[in-house]
Every structure is written in C-alpha cells, then in structure tokens.
Amino acid sequence: MKAIRRFTVRPVLPEPLQPLSDLARNLRWSWHPETRDLFQSVDPECWAASGGDPVRLLGNVAPERLAELAEDRRFLRRLGTAAADLNDYVTGDRWYQNQPQFAELPAAVAYFSPEFGITAALPQYSGGLGILAGDHLKSASDLGVPLIGVGLLYRHGYFRQSLSRDGWQQEHYPVLDPNELPLALVKEADGTPAQVSLALPGGRSLRARIWLAQVGRIPLLLLDSDVEENAASERGVTDRLYGGGSEHRLLQEMLLGIGGVRAVRTYCRLTGHPAPEVFHTNEGHAGFLGLERIAELCDGGLEFDAALEAVRAGTVFTTHTPVPAGIDRFDRELVARHFGADAELPRIDVERILHLGMETYPGGEPNLFNMAVMGLRLAQRANGVSLLHGDVSREMFAGLWPGFDPAEVPITSVTNGVHAPTWVAPEVFRLGARQVGAQRAEDALTVGGSERWDAVADIADQDIWELRRSLREQLVEEVRERLRASWRQRGAGTAELGWIDGVLDPDVLTIGFARRVPSYKRLTLMLRDQDRLMDLLLHPERPVQIVVAGKAHPADDGGKRLIQELVRFADDPRVRHRIVFLPDYGMAMAQKLYPGCDIWLNNPLRPLEACGTSGMKAALNGCLNLSVLDGWWDEWFQPDFGWAIPTADGSATDADRRDDIEAAALYDLLEQRVTPRFYERGTGGLPDRWIEMVRQTLSLLGPKVLAGRMVREYVERLYAPAARAHRAVGPDAARELAGWKARVRAAWPRVTVDHVETSATAATAELGTTLTLRVRVGLGDLGPDDVEVQAVSGRVDPEDRIADATTVALKAAGGPDLEGRWVYEGPLALDRTGPYGYTVRILPAHRLLASPTEVGLVTVPSEEVAEGAGVLMR
What we know:
Pfam families: DUF3417, Phosphorylase
Number of helices: 29
InterPro entries: Agluc_phsphrylas (IPR011834), Glyco_trans_35 (IPR000811), Glycogen/Maltodextrin_Phosph (IPR052182), Glycogen_phosphorylase_DUF3417 (IPR024517), Pyridoxal_P_attach_site (IPR035090)
Largest sheet: 10 strands, mixed
EC number: 2.4.1.1
Organism: Streptomyces flavalbus
Strand content: 15-25%
Shape: globular
Radius of gyration: 29 Å
Structural class: alpha/beta
Mean pLDDT: 93
Function: Phosphorylase is an important allosteric enzyme in carbohydrate metabolism. Enzymes from different sources differ in their regulatory mechanisms and in their natural substrates. However, all known phosphorylases share catalytic and structural properties.
Distance between the termini: 88 Å
C-alpha cells in the first residue's frame, strides 16, 4: 500500500549526544577519518547499512543505543574531542589568514558550479566537473579561503546506473528528500524559508528555496525549485542534473546564475557573512551571474557599460571543455524571450544581453547564444585547467580577440588538483603518518610542499609492497560484492553466480579505467584487438586484470553501445575472472577503486581531455599512470612514475587507423614494459623497480596533484588580482574605463603605423647587436597615454611567423608633427641566432586593464609599410 504523504521523523538525541548532530551536519566528516570512526562506533551495523552517512545513521539507530551512549563516558570523551576539533577547524586561522598580504586578499569569493561532488551522501554530481568543484570547496576550507559555494539542488541528482541482461545501460532516478540529506534550510529571521524569485515570460515566476550544506568552513548554497508556490513546470526546473531540453537547461542556468547571486545576497544579509568581492564562474553554466550583478549596479545608478566594467573586474571564469560541442548554446530567440520588459532583468536592454553571448566572430554561429562566450566577455580573468588545455582554449576562443596570435589570447591555466584527504586511502595515510607524524602527514595532504613528501624515500620497500597488496585485496573483495549485486540486478539467480568467488586475484597486476563514457575517452580502445587483450589477461606467467566503470549520458546511445560492447566481452566465461565492468560509478566506488589498482589507464583522443583528475587520485595512492599525453599527464609525465601511450597525431583524419595504431602501442607497452616490471623480482623477492616507481609517484607527483596547490594558485594568481581590480574599479573608475573604451573603439580605425625603420644596413647581423627602431604612427583622436607601441621580435619560421616572441614597449620621441603623427623609438636586441624577425604594433593601454589584449584591438603595419620597413635578420 502506498503512502499518500511522506514525513521525515528526526531522532531526538539525548542532551549529552547533541554534538553528534553538529558533526553530522558538517560535511567535514566525509574527509575526516576520526569523525567517521566515531560515527561507526555508534552502531557498526547501522553505519554499514547507512552507506557511511551520519544523517541516515542517526535517523535509524535504536533509541536504546543512544541512551546507552549517553552514559558511556569513554564515548562522550571521544565526542567532546571531535566536537572541539571541528570548532577549532572552522574558527581558527589557517593558511589564508596567515598570508603577509592578508588584507589585500578578497574578504569572500563566490564560487558557482552546476554540480558539486562532496560525498556520496549528497549525490549532486555527474563526473569530473562536480568532483573538481567539491574538491575545490574542501581544499578552500582546509586553507581557510572564504568561499561561498553556489549550485542547484537536484531532486533526482544524476541517474543511478544498472545493466540489462544483455549489457545495455539502464537509468534510474531515485527521489532525494532534502530533509534526509545533510542539509538545512536557510530561513528568514521570522523562521520562514528564505526564497529567491525569477520573473518568467507571461507574468509567471520561478521561485526557489535555499538549502545550506556546510562543507567544513565553506557554506554551499543549493537552490531548489520544488516549492508549492511554483506551477508544476517550474517545480521541475531542478528535477535532475543535465536533463531536459533547451528551455529547461536555460531556466536551470538562469536560476543558478541570477538566482544564485540573489541567494548569496540573502545568505550574507541573514548571517553577516562578508559580501563576495570576487565571483568565480566554474564553466559557462553559471554565466548569467554577471548579468544579475550588472543589474544590481544599474539599479544603484550606474550605466550599463560602466556596470559591465565593474563586474568584469571582480570576475574569474574557468573553462573546462576543449571542444565546442561541450558548451551550452541556446537559440537567440529563446534567450531573448526570457529577458526584457516581460521577463527577467527588465531594466536591461535585451540586445545588450544578447550581445554578450552571441558568436559574432569569424566561424561563429550568429544566431546562437554561447554560455562560454558570455562567461569570457563578463570576466576580466579566465583560465583553462591544464597547460595543454590552456593552449587549446586560446585556440578555440581566439575569434574573440581578432588580430592576436592564439598564444596572446588572455586565457591562462591553473592545472586541476584533487583533495587528498578525500581520495587517499586511510592505510596510505597511516603509513605516511608512521613515517613523519600525523600532523606533518596531514599538512602534506592539505597545504602541500615537496619537502613534506620527501620522507617517502625512507619508507621500506617491504612496507610499500605489503600496503599495495593489502589495497589490491580490498579492491578484489569490493569488486566481487558489487559484481554479485550487478548480476542479480541483471536477473541472475544465486546458483548462477558461484564463479564470482574467483573473480580477480590479489596477486595479479590490476588496471583501473573509470570515467564518463563520451566517445573521445575511448572506453573500448582496449578491445581493438580482442585476441591480443585476451592473451594479456590470461598470460600464464604475467597476467593482468582490469576493472572498468563509467556512465554514458542518458541521451548518448553511442556511449551506451560502447558500454555494452565492453560488458559483452567481460561476460565471456574465458575472461570474466580477469575483466569486470562495475555499474553505477560514483564517489563511494571510486574511493575503493583508485587505491586498489596498480595501473591507472587513460586513453582519450589527444587533446580532448581538459585535465583528467582520476589519474591524480590514483597516483596519491601509489598507483602508476599509463596514459596518453593529454591534460595533466602531458604536463607532468616522467618515466620515473609511469608510461606515455604514443599518439598517432598524423592520422587524426582517419579515426579507425588512429585507434588501431594507439591500441597497438598500448598492447606493446603492457606486454614489453609494464607487466615485466611488475612481475620482475629482485634479490629480496620484491619487485624493486616497481616499488621505486611507486615511491617516485608519491614523492614527485604527490605535491603537484593536490587541490591545495590548485586553490593556492587561484588565490595568488586570480582571486587576489581580481579583488584588487574590484576595489580599484569603483563607480567613478568604472565610468572612466567604460568611457575610455568607447572613445578608443570609436577612434581606432584611424590608428595607423605609417613608417618603420631600423639602424640595420644589411640582412645579417651579429648576435648581441642592438639596433635602434623608429616608428611613426598616427593616433587619430587618441594620445600617447591611450596606447602602447610595441616591438615584437623573435625567431621566424619559413612563413616569417614569429615564434617565442619578445615584446618591448617603445617610447614616444616626438610629435605630434604637422600631420598629427607621433614618433616612437626603442632598442631591438638581437639575442638569438638564426632567422630572426620583428614587427611593430599598437595596442590600447589603460591602468585598469588586466592585459594589453583585453580590449581586443590591435593595429599592425600595412603590407606597404612592412615592405619598406627594412630587412629580416638572418
């Protein structure tokens, strides 16, 4: 019989146990082993049944057990210690508060993301973007960075995955009750739930409540449209992550961006939290936040252009996709319908809004509104998520800065990192703590610094090898349990599943491969030559075993076919003890999978992996990487701690040939280099060379792959400069900057390079020679204070393109003459041998610009002027 109404009945904790509620509601427990151990001791069986979720645990533990614990002095001492530790953690000074320039750092940073992977107990993530956002918040908490996280609360989260009997992915959408999650409603002073509201076409409204997840020191605000005041269609806006059609996605992103800013304002008003000085847009989904901030300033009396400059100054935009198909784009008319007089932000001209996102550049689709383009136009600072991805992003978005080489596009990179306390197995941490002490080990995982990782060199080989085998053994047990559950879901009876007891072997080289399943990640590259793979799996002396997991997007039948192909291979009785596919990949599975593998495999199509942090999590547990040189691996690969799969870049136009070549290279590496090293034994009976690679992985890669390192880079390179810019671009400065940009844009067509000459008399010169460069320029209605005239020089290729350029600002030497021309001079140092060339250019210059390329204007010599400029140095 089905209930007609549902309630959540909360437990009444005895007074001595009240701190348990605070510990359960702060998600620090998800990365704090001592707190998890405390909850486990409340009721070990109930803890296991709750999936390690303290809120569910406290809702299910028997009242008699609670009464018993309330009288247990030893338990109460542990509880008091844990509560005091949490209080010290959330209130004490940490890295951020101890910086010499602390007063210059932002008082608060608002961090917007469409998904957050904090813990399996709060399933609001689909993959790498959400896990990265969760790790960002956790590391910010560990470092004391005053972030406010902003996202949506999806009532179905992302889908749960199972398999049909024939291996086809099936999706399930469990209903999540916020009252049963580690969340609390944000309430007004009178106790009513706080709400934000958006105006929709036709006089309708979209309302949302604000739920608070406390992530250590960091408040995470999640907006929920499933409220009674909404009509049915509006209630469903936050139904599921990445679901629905274009309008559904647009409404989600309007709620995230516009509603998210309003939620931040509400939270700060109610709690006294400092207002953010910097807004960080994690991917384009949250880009509308900039429009709401412009509207706020316009309501305060600023004109649109000035408000735009003020908003840009304090905004950071991170792009995560290396392919245009990964960006949300909406039809122009759809966006126009949701803004303006009859909808949201009525005080802003719709055309101004549309202009921010339209692809009005060569190669763009002029009728599409691009969320990443809007994000870049609304942010003065932008970054990709690895060095290679920064290169790819500058190429992809170069159309927004016409006239500049891609290398000069103002998109930098901050390579992603992972939150070590979340992903490092407790056994790994304990081994490190035994070597250097618990506090130093904790500092190594949170703050980083290579000196804290050097002690790995002193850990005995035997200890490392015993740890690796223990973790592999735990993974074997986990795999068998999950595989048995999966086969039961597929319809198998208990009598059919006896073979599962022999699946995997704790003494066999174990390879892990787990991620989302878009085609570019090439889940089935390992199946390219199935006979060869079977030989690897069943080798009599050097076998391998493979654990695979991953979800395809519900609308991606191509991805589902890849999963089915792999599942059918893994179902073959000849190899099913050596290769398994585990459905429903998520955080809980990942935390067992990474530590238990010896090799982490990653074989995307280069350069389509923006970063790929799964290999980082594996590395922190002593797992070696075997990967295509893409994302972070392209940046940090060394033969000391892994292998690089060669790529067939010359075969990029022939996908099948490229896959054949790269699969063969993968098999070769496994047969000739990876498996021999794992099974080779030294004089002490241990795989000495393998253990040394594990040691190098931990000591050399460890400090690099930390989210603590990543967040420190964001603070130092992006947040602090953005905060300074935010303070500098007040209302008067914003008006000045907007007026200056308008004046420069209007005058720029009359800015010219009229003549260029050097003191060179021949086409050759000696290394170390310094030439004098003279340039005559026309500035039209602008003056020398509005521009910078630069000499750009360096080696040239056969097409005379300058590579690895050096830029020198020239100085005004005279003018204006009777024709209004100015003369600029400066030195040109010939500091490199071989073919060498130079050019000159004029850029806008203003003290409030973050980079000289920001305005997107540049003037270079015409062909006639260039031909008369002298000679190329060779």
